Amino acid sequence: MTETIAGRRRLGRGLEALLGPTREQAEREGSLVELAIADIRPNPYQPRRDVDPTALDELKASILKAGLLQPVVVRAAPGNGGYELIAGERRLRACQALGWERIPAVKRDVDDRTVLTLALIENLQRDDLSPVDEARGYERLIAEFSLTQQGVADAVGRDRSTVANALRLLKLPALVLGLLHEGRLSVGHARALLALDDARAVTALAKEAVDLGLSVRDVEDRARGGRAPVRRPRLKQGLGQAPEVRRIEDALRRRLGTDVRVTLRAKGKGQIHVNFYSNDDLARLLELILGAPFDG
């Protein structure tokens, strides 16, 4: 089902086609139709809970300039007619916001499991899910379709250790998951918190990490019972505070599933710091970066 392309495990052609061909491809295969937006229901298996307003505005501007280059993908809705979205939620929302009444679409005949899998894949390929939404999507595949962790990994084109590490995050208390979902805690912080068994202690340390700007190492030390230095939050100096740098860090954290820090210096120089937390975690990161298992 999967193959390695350009350093990234990807879907086979069948599932990639289900995610949505370009408009030109759909016209060639004769599958392009225009549907009333009012007839399209949201995807009930959509794992993403929030849509970034800035990203949605950028998509609207792109559609206004170049049109909708990739149609949405739908299936016949069970029950009373109409259609159910499979892929393209942001495209659908953007066109709704622009006042469109009809939208180019491709109709597919797929089952519930495929719809959930494709919704996950669409977001994962765009690095568009929070770590919490990603983990809940994996959990849903396991619970509703009796998949193993390896089965989930094969379905979405991820490594089994990536799926296992994501699922472990769901053991954290709800408040901590909220901080992780909002991006106020990194995945590295969350993994460090898993060393604690008491939910109240986990929650207290998570709040402390946010309030005091503790590093992942600080949280690790505190979780082990050490005495990490208390550091008051302070702004980074120079170029490292630029919004584009924070966006780069966020994108790298989502892609690599770990804490990442980017430091910029003058004349375009700088450093990228990538944290790992075990030998298995290092092996996972090396495979993601190199595109193949590291033989040593």
Secondary-structure-based class equals alpha/beta
- Computed Rg: 21 Å
**Biggest sheet overview:** 5 strands, mixed
Kindly state the mean pLDDT as a whole number? 78
Beta percentage is 5-15%
Per DSSP, the total helix count is 14
What would the principal axes of the Cα set say about the shape?
Answer: globular
Characterize the structure shown.
By secondary structure, this protein is an alpha/beta fold. It folds into three domains: 114 residues, Alpha-Beta Complex (Conserved hypothetical protein from pyrococcus furiosus pfu- 392566-001, ParB domain); 63 residues; 53 residues, no CATH class. 49% of the residues lie in helices and 14% in strands. It is built from 14 helices and nine strands. Strands 3-7-5-6-4 form a five-stranded mixed sheet. A two-stranded antiparallel ribbon has the order 1-2. A hairpin with a 5-residue loop joins strand 8 and strand 9. Helix 5 packs antiparallel against helix 6, helix 7 packs across helix 8 and helix 10 runs parallel beside helix 12. The protein is globular and about 60 Å long. The N terminus is likely disordered.
